[in-house]
Amino acid sequence: MKNTKLFFNGIKDGFQEPGHTLASTVNFFLLTLVFILGIGIVSLLSKIVKKRYLPLKSENKNSYWEKVDIGGEKKKEEYLKPF
Amino acid sequence: MIILGISAFFHDSSACIIKDGKLIAAVEEERFTRKKHDSSFPINAIQYCLKEAGIKGKDLDAVAFYEKPLLKFERVLSQFLDSFPKGLLAFNKTIPSWINEKLRIRSIIKKKIKFYGDVFFIEHHLAHAASSYLLSPYKHAVLLTVDGVGEWASATAGYAKENTLVLEKQIKFPHSLGLLYSTITGYLGMSVNNSEYKTMGLAAYGNPTYYDQLKKIVDIKEDGSFALDMSYFVYQHKMKMPSTKFIQEFGPEKRKNEEMTQKHKDMAASVQKITEETLFKILHSLHKEYKSDNLCMAGGVALNSLANGKILKNTPFKSLFIQPAAGDGGTSVGAAAFTYFSILKKKREYVLNDAYLGPGYTNEEIEKFLKEKEITYTPFKDKKDLTKKVAKLIYENQVIGWFQGRMEFGPRALGARSILSNPCNPKMQEILNVKVKHREKFRPFAPVVCLEDAQEYFECDKEIPLAADYMLLVYPIKEKYRKLLPAITHIDGTGRLQTVRKGQNELYYQVIKEFGKLSNIPLLINTSFNIRGEPIVCTPEDAYRCMMGTGIDYLVLNNFLIKREDNKKDMWDSEEFADD
């Protein structure tokens, strides 16, 4: 019984590294697909309508501070949200 | 009421416990896993905190997490959307951890600590601000947080009164003072999010000759708000910092093992000057706007002790508070404190008195370890004898590994896990750098002094801020002492001092005083008890291993003194393991 367990554990350990490599390869291809189809299409559409997601170009204004409302007297429920 | 605070999955994961309004434990995960800046879920730190509170995960009243993950994810996706088709490699590297960890915080907490109650998500910069103000003695203060980036903000400002904190404005990513500093750190061949303090140390060797050139890529307004010319940076879509344009303009990046030249030192001095100028402008404007003389700062940039030491002289603020873990490690404390005092509106009486919030070991536990490992040691029954002996050894130029009581929270060793040595020995800096710490020769060592003696040796502020207890302020050493204290006097005549108050760390205080009796100078070198690239030691075993692998001559484990030479069987050479 003990030997059988050791045998199967050995097989499991032996497959671990190629398993990881296979998983990484599959992940890479899937993520690349998501990047091209998901990010790519939305990005192209955004470029057509000239929408920018990051304020990369700074306009020459008096102050770069942006107003926000963080903290203060918000309800407890606001802080239970992860957004 | 017991609140657990967690910071995880970015860098410097940590956990803390607030019990009935008092911070009773706080520790970074790296100290247990021995991986510097460990970003994994801080399960070891949490287990330690729960043990300190004497409870299990299910007994907690609430858990507070240090950021709003979905807001941060929005920013990460925006980076990729904006830079497409660039960013494929960064996307492949980043997204798996979002799917597996960062978007599953609640389920990870349930699974790992069996807690099924309320999990509060506190904005990253709010957690920073709370970590400072809610541990400070102030009833009102101006708040300023500056770091690399949180969810969207890289800097925020606002005010606090009683239990209420309000952040009213932000500088939005990708514009970031912290990331500008990190870019120069990376450009100088050092690791980003790790070696920024080395850039700060290097700055003293240079002249800010690149100031005008750097200034062209940072637009700083009168109120201190700033924007970067992003054509000089690529961190918004790559796993590196400066762009080709930056390299073309400033020359090639320094390779890791390349010699540090005057140009590199000048670059460090220039970015330091820009950082200080920006901070002082912001602070002038905030003081005018919020009309409070108290300032609470946090975020990675608040660890810039060179700038911190100049704040009270260069701005209208009269009082400054920064807590010891001002970087991301401290956000677990901020999240928990904000939940307890601001969301649940509990009475605020607690003020942070010291940073000794980590694991400690009893004499019995240490003696058991020493016996098990067959280590030769000398026990001291009388603590006075121990402090006298240690002071004498330091006076005789021996290097001491000092392990006492509970470990410090935050990146600085403050007399619980420290290496102590003689600041008057001109060769001590080299001895420590080469034999013990295996680190760059340009890096200075910090002095520790009892609070009441600080004004004698340093050109401090009239009222020394509490932040000096946490080694967060650099001050000039008085001219007449610079030659007497060669090992702690940096090239520009400054020292990043730690002040110790009586009653804060009694044995440490006594060793400094005893050394003063022998040398007439009550100051010591205090540097972190670790080898370069390793986290500060946590357990007696870590401390013993560190001593045996370096040039530390003696180790003090609570009441036990261990001589390296007496334990030759355990000697090894740590030099080849020293990392960045």
Q: Can you tell me about this structure?
A:
The complex is a heterodimer of chains A (83) and B (580). By secondary structure, chain A is mainly α. Chain A has a domain at 1-52. Chain A is built from 2 helices and 1 strand; from the N terminus they run αβα. Chain A has helices at 2-48, 76-80; one strand spanning 66-71. The longest helix of chain A is centred in the first third of the chain and has 47 residues, at 2-48. Chain B has 580 residues and is of the alpha/beta class. Chain B has 3 domains: 2-123 and 325-343, ATPase, nucleotide binding domain (Nucleotidyltransferase, domain 5), CATH 3.30.420.40; 172-321, ATPase, nucleotide binding domain (Nucleotidyltransferase, domain 5, 2-Layer Sandwich), CATH 3.30.420; 363-577, Carbamoyltransferase, C-terminal domain (DHBP synthase, Alpha-Beta Complex). In chain B, 37% of the residues lie in helices and 18% in strands. A 9-stranded mixed β-sheet of chain B has the order 13-21-20-14-15-19-16-18-17, with helices on both faces. In chain B, strand 9 and strand 10 form a beta hairpin. In chain B, helix 6 crosses helix 13 (331-343) and helix 15 packs across helix 19 (506-519). The model of chain B has no long low-confidence stretch (mean pLDDT 95). Chains A and B meet through helix 1, strand 1 and helix 2 of A and helix 3, helix 4, strand 5, helix 6 and strand 7 of B.
For the structure shown, list the relevant keywords:
heterodimer, A: 83 residues, mainly alpha, 2 helices, 7% strand, elongated, B: 580 residues, alpha/beta, Nucleotidyltransferase, domain 5, DHBP synthase, 3 domains, 9-stranded mixed beta sheet, 5-stranded mixed beta sheet, 21 strands, 37% helix, globular
